[in-house]
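Hi, here's the filled form for the chain we discussed.

Project: internal
Contact: R.S.
Residues: 82
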Amino acid sequence: METLGMAPGVIGVAARIFITWEDVMELLGCRKSKAYKIVHEVNECAKKKGNSPFPSGKANKYLFSEIYGIPIEEVNRVISNR
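And the returned structure, exactly as it came back:
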């Protein structure tokens, strides 16, 4: 069965559930070193909540959105432009 608007055989692309330090730089207008620190802090918060942290340089986009008060739609817009 073929999905409308997609190439034959393509089911779809999984949505990214993480942000990178590059995404953080764009969303917050900060430098690379600050973005790395923020990603680390979001991962530490995830650990405290009992969730597994993401690998280095990545963090949960939903938790980031919650902590920094940035609407998830804006986070998704930045992610989708990469």
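Let me know if anything looks off before we file it.
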